Amino acid sequence: MDRSPSESGDLPRALALTLASALAWGVAHLVTGRRLTGGLLLGLYLALVAAAVAVATVFRSDLDHLAVRPDALQRIAGGLVLLGLVWIAVVVRSYQVVRPAGLSVSGRALGAGSVAVICFAVAVPTAWSAHTTYVYRDALTSIFRTGNENGRQIDAADPWDGQPRVNILLLGGDAAANREGVRTDSMTLASVDTKTGDTVLLSLPRNLEGFQLPPGPARDRFPYGFTGDGPETPGLLNEVYQYAEEHPDVVPGVAKNHRGPTLLKDTIAGILGMRVDYYILVDMFGFADIIDAMGGVKIKITQPIPYGRQGGVLQPGERTLKGKEALWYGRSRTDSDDYVRMGRQKCLMRAIAQQADPQTVITKFDKLASAAKRTLSTDLPQELLPALLKLSGKVKDGAQIDSLQFVPPLISTGSPDFALIRRLAAKAVEDNGASPSPSASASPSPSASPTGDGSLARPTPRSATRSPAPQTKPVSLESTCPS
């Protein structure tokens, strides 16, 4: 027989049972003899706990795939809201079941206040989880469009369409308040083996000249190579993106904000002699926001780097750089050139990728998502994200990453040998993963580095000539960044 509320004990005991019911549904009902309801609540609670444990362990890989599916994220956010509401209802009803009869006004107020605190403690984590899931989904859908929107159909069974490698163009955009448009001062094609994750990074300098635009209206306008649009644009590779945005007739039928990446992808494909599948553009100024959201980035500085306009200097040594400091580290031209900057930028991105651990992402998630929406643009379709996530795991778990920069003295930026560029690019991709890269502990001699930053160098024998020879083979990214 069910006991009456007056038989359930005094207020402290009632609150203790309510708290116990918040931690394990059904306790208050079972204590008061409501075995059926209590058993159902406890069974449901245990089933939810078992499901959470199974997802976090047995089905963890499936969870990773769900994390890049906006439709699944929407259902998860809705489920978390429902869970929170049910949990609060269980707490309130549990207190009603065990609440003593004949409480004074102060006793009723104390009991209601205590239950409200318990409900608040339940609501906060579930509401935070639902909010975070929604923010993540919003960022995902803002940055990555569907395949239909991008004009691509992705086969879930074969997302790479049978291709042994996927080639993604990584762009660093130089937008600023005092300049119109975007200049792509950093251009690197990442060619990734779709089975092993082995990657080769092929970097082109911003000041490359004399290149052909792709066949069609663009080539018709510049039949002898791109020459820019007036004295302010001398015809450098970093001008192609903005030129296309300002001249829609050279890429007919392509929408605004897509013309630049389309023409630049096709142009670089012609320069390197290989397909460019997708692009990712990072606004370098917005990139500082991502670093600040992470709490800074740790990096080893090997020589003093002027910082800011007030005569500041980033001193050598292990440093934790804030967003603006990291931007100066990657972009400073003082006592260096474009090619040294290219090497520093690669090392900066490598450091950020290594330090973006799960704890940092979780604790700084809102700021990171907001910064990413302002900073990133891409034509990678949402449907490709599960396969890309799996591939990135292989890259992070020890895949070989090599880097080759097409900079002097390997090439002349004013009069490049494009046949040589295409030949070396093809050879670099062919050799990627075929043999071990130089050890990360290798210390190239100064004479081995044509750019002064070691980004193209391998150790050379002391008997070799003092004149730096052009580096024609890629080297391990690990060996080029100080650690």
Automatic annotation (TrEMBL):
Biased composition (Polar residues): 462-483
Biased composition (Low complexity): 434-450
Keyword set, alphabetical order: Membrane, Transmembrane, Transmembrane helix
InterPro entries, per database record: LytR/CpsA/Psr_CW_biosynth, LytR_CpsA_psr
Keyword Transmembrane: yes
Disordered: region residues: 431-483
Residue stretches spanning the membrane: 14-32, 39-60, 72-95, 107-128
Superkingdom in the source lineage: Bacteria
One Pfam family from the record: LytR_cpsA_psr
Domain Cell envelope-related transcriptional attenuator: 183-356
NCBIfam families: lytR_cpsA_psr (TIGR00350)
Record-stated family: Belongs to the LytR/CpsA/Psr (LCP) family.
Protein name per the record: LCP family protein
Organism of this sequence: Actinomadura fibrosa
Lineage of the species this protein comes from: Bacteria, Bacillati, Actinomycetota, Actinomycetes, Streptosporangiales
